[in-house]
Write a structure and sequence with these properties.
The chain has helices at about 1-60, 65-70, 75-90, 95-110, 115-145, 150-205. It is mainly α. It has one domain (about 1-205). The longest helix has about 55 residues, at about 1-60.
Protein backbone atom coordinates (compact mmCIF):
# COMPACT_ATOMS: atom_id res chain seq x y z
CA UNK A 1 0.00 0.00 0.00
CA UNK A 2 2.78 2.41 0.94
CA UNK A 3 4.70 1.57 -2.24
CA UNK A 4 1.63 2.34 -4.32
CA UNK A 5 1.41 5.80 -2.76
CA UNK A 6 5.07 6.41 -3.55
CA UNK A 7 4.53 5.44 -7.18
CA UNK A 8 1.46 7.69 -7.30
CA UNK A 9 3.58 10.60 -6.06
CA UNK A 10 6.29 9.76 -8.59
CA UNK A 11 3.82 10.27 -11.45
CA UNK A 12 3.89 14.03 -10.85
CA UNK A 13 6.71 14.72 -8.40
CA UNK A 14 9.47 14.56 -11.03
CA UNK A 15 7.84 17.48 -12.84
CA UNK A 16 7.43 19.34 -9.57
CA UNK A 17 11.16 18.90 -8.95
CA UNK A 18 11.95 20.54 -12.29
CA UNK A 19 9.71 23.48 -11.37
CA UNK A 20 11.48 23.82 -8.02
CA UNK A 21 14.86 23.77 -9.77
CA UNK A 22 13.67 26.42 -12.23
CA UNK A 23 12.62 28.66 -9.33
CA UNK A 24 15.98 28.06 -7.61
CA UNK A 25 17.79 28.93 -10.83
CA UNK A 26 15.92 32.22 -11.27
CA UNK A 27 16.50 33.09 -7.61
CA UNK A 28 20.18 32.25 -7.87
CA UNK A 29 20.67 34.35 -11.01
CA UNK A 30 18.95 37.31 -9.35
CA UNK A 31 21.17 37.06 -6.27
CA UNK A 32 24.32 36.64 -8.34
CA UNK A 33 23.51 39.76 -10.34
CA UNK A 34 22.63 41.79 -7.22
CA UNK A 35 25.86 40.80 -5.44
CA UNK A 36 27.89 41.56 -8.55
CA UNK A 37 26.53 45.10 -8.78
CA UNK A 38 26.93 45.72 -5.04
CA UNK A 39 30.32 44.17 -4.35
CA UNK A 40 31.99 45.41 -7.53
CA UNK A 41 31.89 49.05 -6.43
CA UNK A 42 32.87 48.26 -2.83
CA UNK A 43 35.73 46.03 -3.98
CA UNK A 44 37.07 48.70 -6.33
CA UNK A 45 37.07 51.23 -3.50
CA UNK A 46 38.73 48.72 -1.16
CA UNK A 47 41.48 48.04 -3.70
CA UNK A 48 42.11 51.75 -4.03
CA UNK A 49 42.29 52.13 -0.24
CA UNK A 50 44.62 49.12 0.13
CA UNK A 51 47.05 50.63 -2.35
CA UNK A 52 46.83 53.93 -0.51
CA UNK A 53 47.54 52.28 2.85
CA UNK A 54 50.43 50.30 1.37
CA UNK A 55 51.97 53.52 0.13
CA UNK A 56 51.41 55.21 3.49
CA UNK A 57 53.15 52.39 5.34
CA UNK A 58 56.07 52.35 2.91
CA UNK A 59 56.60 56.08 3.34
CA UNK A 60 55.71 56.06 7.06
CA UNK A 61 53.05 58.66 6.27
CA UNK A 62 50.59 57.75 9.02
CA UNK A 63 49.02 61.18 8.60
CA UNK A 64 47.15 59.67 5.65
CA UNK A 65 44.77 58.15 8.22
CA UNK A 66 43.23 61.61 8.68
CA UNK A 67 42.82 62.03 4.92
CA UNK A 68 41.26 58.58 4.67
CA UNK A 69 38.81 59.48 7.44
CA UNK A 70 37.54 62.34 5.25
CA UNK A 71 36.63 59.92 2.44
CA UNK A 72 32.96 58.92 2.88
CA UNK A 73 32.80 57.17 -0.49
CA UNK A 74 34.56 54.04 0.77
CA UNK A 75 33.68 51.63 3.54
CA UNK A 76 37.20 52.03 4.92
CA UNK A 77 36.86 55.81 4.91
CA UNK A 78 33.66 55.70 6.94
CA UNK A 79 35.27 53.27 9.38
CA UNK A 80 38.32 55.53 9.73
CA UNK A 81 36.03 58.53 10.25
CA UNK A 82 34.23 56.89 13.16
CA UNK A 83 37.51 55.64 14.63
CA UNK A 84 39.16 59.06 14.38
CA UNK A 85 36.19 60.71 16.05
CA UNK A 86 36.41 58.19 18.89
CA UNK A 87 40.17 58.71 19.29
CA UNK A 88 39.78 62.47 19.52
CA UNK A 89 37.12 62.11 22.19
CA UNK A 90 38.38 59.12 24.19
CA UNK A 91 41.90 58.29 22.98
CA UNK A 92 42.81 54.76 21.95
CA UNK A 93 40.81 53.19 24.77
CA UNK A 94 38.07 51.16 23.13
CA UNK A 95 39.38 52.00 19.66
CA UNK A 96 39.56 48.38 18.49
CA UNK A 97 36.12 47.63 19.92
CA UNK A 98 34.62 50.57 18.01
CA UNK A 99 36.30 49.45 14.81
CA UNK A 100 35.24 45.83 15.25
CA UNK A 101 31.67 46.93 15.95
CA UNK A 102 31.66 48.87 12.69
CA UNK A 103 32.83 45.76 10.83
CA UNK A 104 30.13 43.63 12.46
CA UNK A 105 27.40 46.09 11.49
CA UNK A 106 28.56 46.05 7.87
CA UNK A 107 29.09 42.29 7.69
CA UNK A 108 25.42 41.31 7.08
CA UNK A 109 25.18 43.69 4.10
CA UNK A 110 28.43 42.40 2.61
CA UNK A 111 27.45 38.74 3.05
CA UNK A 112 23.84 39.23 1.95
CA UNK A 113 22.49 36.25 -0.06
CA UNK A 114 25.79 34.33 0.20
CA UNK A 115 24.29 31.77 2.59
CA UNK A 116 21.39 31.25 0.18
CA UNK A 117 23.78 30.74 -2.76
CA UNK A 118 25.73 28.22 -0.69
CA UNK A 119 22.49 26.38 0.16
CA UNK A 120 21.44 26.27 -3.49
CA UNK A 121 24.89 25.08 -4.58
CA UNK A 122 24.93 22.25 -2.05
CA UNK A 123 21.31 21.09 -2.34
CA UNK A 124 20.35 21.56 -6.01
CA UNK A 125 22.19 18.36 -7.14
CA UNK A 126 20.36 16.30 -4.52
CA UNK A 127 17.00 17.76 -5.55
CA UNK A 128 17.85 16.94 -9.18
CA UNK A 129 18.82 13.41 -8.18
CA UNK A 130 15.51 13.03 -6.37
CA UNK A 131 13.72 14.04 -9.56
CA UNK A 132 15.72 11.47 -11.52
CA UNK A 133 14.92 8.68 -9.07
CA UNK A 134 11.23 9.55 -9.15
CA UNK A 135 11.33 9.67 -12.96
CA UNK A 136 12.97 6.25 -13.17
CA UNK A 137 10.38 4.85 -10.76
CA UNK A 138 7.67 6.30 -12.97
CA UNK A 139 9.22 4.77 -16.11
CA UNK A 140 9.43 1.26 -14.65
CA UNK A 141 5.97 1.53 -13.13
CA UNK A 142 4.56 2.50 -16.52
CA UNK A 143 6.36 -0.51 -18.04
CA UNK A 144 4.85 -2.82 -15.43
CA UNK A 145 1.35 -1.54 -16.08
CA UNK A 146 1.64 -1.56 -19.88
CA UNK A 147 2.68 -5.06 -20.89
CA UNK A 148 2.94 -4.07 -24.55
CA UNK A 149 5.57 -1.40 -23.76
CA UNK A 150 9.07 -2.30 -24.84
CA UNK A 151 12.62 -1.39 -23.97
CA UNK A 152 12.40 1.80 -26.00
CA UNK A 153 9.60 3.10 -23.79
CA UNK A 154 11.66 2.51 -20.63
CA UNK A 155 14.75 4.15 -22.11
CA UNK A 156 12.68 7.18 -23.16
CA UNK A 157 11.34 7.52 -19.61
CA UNK A 158 14.80 7.21 -18.07
CA UNK A 159 16.30 9.77 -20.46
CA UNK A 160 13.59 12.24 -19.46
CA UNK A 161 14.25 11.47 -15.79
CA UNK A 162 17.96 12.24 -16.19
CA UNK A 163 17.04 15.79 -17.19
CA UNK A 164 16.39 16.49 -13.50
CA UNK A 165 19.97 15.57 -12.56
CA UNK A 166 21.35 17.76 -15.33
CA UNK A 167 19.08 20.61 -14.24
CA UNK A 168 20.26 20.24 -10.64
CA UNK A 169 23.89 20.51 -11.71
CA UNK A 170 23.07 23.42 -14.01
CA UNK A 171 21.63 25.29 -11.03
CA UNK A 172 24.31 24.26 -8.52
CA UNK A 173 27.48 24.96 -10.51
CA UNK A 174 27.00 28.71 -11.11
CA UNK A 175 25.75 29.19 -7.54
CA UNK A 176 28.85 27.45 -6.15
CA UNK A 177 31.26 29.33 -8.41
CA UNK A 178 29.84 32.75 -7.57
CA UNK A 179 29.51 31.91 -3.87
CA UNK A 180 33.25 31.21 -3.71
CA UNK A 181 34.02 34.29 -5.84
CA UNK A 182 31.96 36.64 -3.68
CA UNK A 183 33.29 35.09 -0.48
CA UNK A 184 36.81 35.97 -1.60
CA UNK A 185 35.64 39.49 -2.44
CA UNK A 186 34.14 39.96 1.01
CA UNK A 187 37.25 38.51 2.65
CA UNK A 188 39.37 41.05 0.75
CA UNK A 189 37.15 43.88 1.99
CA UNK A 190 37.49 42.69 5.59
CA UNK A 191 41.27 42.49 5.13
CA UNK A 192 41.24 46.07 3.90
CA UNK A 193 39.26 47.16 6.95
CA UNK A 194 41.74 45.39 9.22
CA UNK A 195 44.62 47.24 7.54
CA UNK A 196 42.83 50.54 8.19
CA UNK A 197 42.52 49.60 11.84
CA UNK A 198 46.25 48.90 12.07
CA UNK A 199 47.00 52.20 10.34
CA UNK A 200 44.75 53.95 12.86
CA UNK A 201 46.60 52.37 15.79
CA UNK A 202 49.90 53.48 14.31
CA UNK A 203 48.53 56.97 13.81
CA UNK A 204 47.33 57.09 17.43
CA UNK A 205 50.75 56.05 18.77
CA UNK A 206 52.47 58.64 16.64
CA UNK A 207 50.15 61.34 17.95
CA UNK A 208 50.55 60.10 21.52
CA UNK A 209 46.84 59.52 22.03
Amino acid sequence: MFAEKIFAIAQYADQVVLIILAIMSITSIGMIFERFMTLRKISEESLRVRLRIKMALQTNSLQDFEDLAKDPTSLEGRAAGQALKHMRESGTKGFEEVFNTFILTEKPDLEKYLAVLATIASNAPFIGLLGTVLGIMKAFNDLAQATDAGQQTVMAGISVALVATAAGLFVAIPAGIFYNYYTRKVKGIFTSLESVKELGLGYAKKKGM
